[in-house]
C-alpha cells in the first residue's frame, strides 16, 4: 500500500476540482474552503478543506473518505 504524501490544501483542492468538485461560495469562509459535487444519486457531497501548507494525514484521510477516493486514486491524480 502506498504511503500518503504530505500535501498542501492547494494541491488537494486542485485534485478535487479535476474530478468534478466546484466551489461552494457561501460555505467556505476564513481559514477553510468548501467544495461540493453531485453524486450519482443526485445528492450533494460537501467537503471542507482547511487552508494549510501541510494538511495532517488524519485530516487528509477524512477528506478522502468523504469524497470516496482511495489513496491510490489520489496518488494517480497528483
Your description of this structure?
This protein is α+β, with helices and mostly antiparallel strands. The chain has one domain: Hypothetical protein (Metal Transport, Frataxin, Chain A), CATH 3.30.920. The chain is 36% helix and 21% strand. It contains 3 helices and 3 strands, in the order H-E-E-E-H-H. Strands 1-2-3 form a 3-stranded antiparallel sheet, with helices on one face. The longest helix has 11 residues, at 57-67. It is globular and about 35 Å long.
How many strands, which pairing sense, and closed or not: the largest β-sheet?
Answer: 3 strands, antiparallel
SS class: alpha+beta
Q: What percentage of amino acids are in beta strands?
A: 15-25%
Query: How many beta-strand segments?
Result: 3
Helix content: 25-40%
The arrangement of helices and strands along the chain is: HEEEHH
Low-confidence stretches: none
* Separation of the first and last Cα atoms: 16 Å
Spatial order of the strands forming the largest sheet: 1-2-3
Instruction: Using the coordinates shown, work out and report the CATH topology.
Output: Metal Transport, Frataxin, Chain A
According to CATH, the homologous superfamily is Hypothetical protein
What is the CATH top level name? Alpha Beta
Please count the helical segments: 3
Number of domains: 1
Radius of gyration using CA atoms only: 12 Å
How much is the average pLDDT?
Answer: 88
Do you know the CATH architecture?
2-Layer Sandwich
Task: Report the principal-axis shape.
Answer: globular
Amino acid at each position: 500500500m502506498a504511503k500518503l504524501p504530505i500535501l498542501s490544501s492547494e494541491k488537494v483542492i486542485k485534485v478535487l476540482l479535476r474530478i468534478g468538485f466546484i466551489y461552494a461560495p457561501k460555505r467556505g469562509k476564513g481559514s477553510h474552503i468548501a467544495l461540493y459535487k453531485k453524486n450519482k444519486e443526485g445528492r450533494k457531497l460537501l467537503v471542507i478543506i482547511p487552508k494549510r501548507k501541510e494538511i495532517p494525514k488524519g485530516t487528509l484521510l477524512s477528506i478522502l473518505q468523504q469524497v470516496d477516493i482511495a489513496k491510490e486514486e489520489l496518488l494517480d491524480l497528483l
